[in-house]
Amino acid sequence: MESVVRLEDVSVHYYTFTGVVKAVDRVTLDIPRGEFVSFVGESGSGKSTLALALLRLVPPPGRIVSGRIVFNGMDLLSLPEQKMRELRGKSISMVFQDPMTSLDPVRKVGEQIADVYIEHGVTTDMEEALKLAREALEMVGIPGDRVNYYPHQLSGGQRQRVLIAAAVALKPSLLIADEPTTALDVIVQAKIMDLLEDLMKELKMSVILITHDIALAAERSDRIAVMYAGRVVEYGPVDAIIENPLHPYTRGLLESAPDLWGEKRIKGIPGNPPDLRNPPRGCPFHPRCPRRFDPCDKDEPEYVKVDDRIVSCHLYTR
Ligand code: ATP
Ligand code: SF4
């Protein structure tokens, strides 16, 4: 299995006045080339921070404190900033939740897509860049003449398509989408997800979806990484995880998801995620875990491989 990106022991901390927040804690995994991988977890589990780390865009007071991120054979964490800037938007792109904050309200959407071609030196001619922007819009299902529209003249779904057009303009090998459909209604959400899947196949990209919605991840992904308290607690092929979740937290998420598990009663996970400035000793999930036993509040579980999955839980370490 060839990977587009490999994370090795990556940790990201925020150095706040009230303490060090361990937002991402020693994450190791491979994203296979050409696959759709979702990072799933509750709010505050570290999903967005991990996505920003992949682009080396963690904002202060955050810092990537350790690990390696190997993208297409390059160690991103040791690249000069100039080289990183070239890669962003060209080889690795990102779309965020709210298109309105990413788009400039007073510039035509075509110009904003054209910027990508100019910034990355595809052309120096604005007319030529606008022609390419028109093609990029058509690729995401928006009529080309809308290059002349301002963001407010488009619907929320169309604005998200504009951002996707800008993100895939240079045919990146990895697209990261951070809750791209949270602000949209269910039907528009499904269409945007269809678009991401189509583009993935057409452009032979890998896609990382960041979402709190395990049902959405289950429907769309080849693989799921479940995050809890900055750790990836389970990672593997989607079918295996949905059919037989190994980690009690994954099971809890699935039991909280309407529809996924047929007629089963929706339960939810009692309690709250820990404060990442001071996470519990041992397994970070132990205060909420229905299956905790002797070692759980003392020793942190190592990662173990179970078939084609990795899981971090004492149920599988002994
Ligand atoms: P959400 O879905 O709410 O965005 P998430 O799973 O993406 O959550 P992150 O946003 O990565 O999680 O946050 C992980 C942890 O890092 C949280 O405890 C959060 O409070 C903390 N954090 C995130 N950004 C900052 C920041 N700029 N300064 C300090 N702490 C931060
Ligand atoms: Fe539950 Fe223990 Fe597994 Fe943590 S290590 S998830 S507390 S059984």
Q: Explain this structure to me?
A:
- The protein is an alpha/beta fold and 318 residues long.
- The chain folds into 2 domains: 3-91 and 174-273, 3-Layer(aba) Sandwich (Rossmann fold), CATH 3.40.50; 103-171, no CATH class.
- 30% of the residues lie in helices and 25% in strands.
- The chain contains 10 helices and 12 strands.
- The chain has an 8-stranded mixed beta sheet with strand order 6-7-8-3-9-10-12-11, with helices on both faces. The protein has a 4-stranded antiparallel beta sheet with strand order 2-1-4-5, with helices on one face.
- The model has no long low-confidence stretch (mean pLDDT 94).
- It binds adenosine-5'-triphosphate and iron/sulfur cluster.
Please give a quick description of this structure.
With 318 residues, the chain is an alpha/beta fold.
- Count of individual beta strands: 12
At CATH level 3, the topology of the largest domain is Rossmann fold
CATH architecture of the largest domain: 3-Layer(aba) Sandwich
Structural class: alpha/beta
Q: What do the pLDDT scores average to?
A: 94
The total count of helices amounts to 10
- CATH first level of the largest domain: Alpha Beta
Low-confidence runs? none
The helix content, as a percent range, equals 25-40%
Query: In order across it, which strands form the biggest sheet?
Result: 6-7-8-3-9-10-12-11
- The span between the termini is 28 Å
Number of separate domains: 2
Largest sheet: 8 strands, mixed
Ligand list: adenosine-5'-triphosphate, iron/sulfur cluster
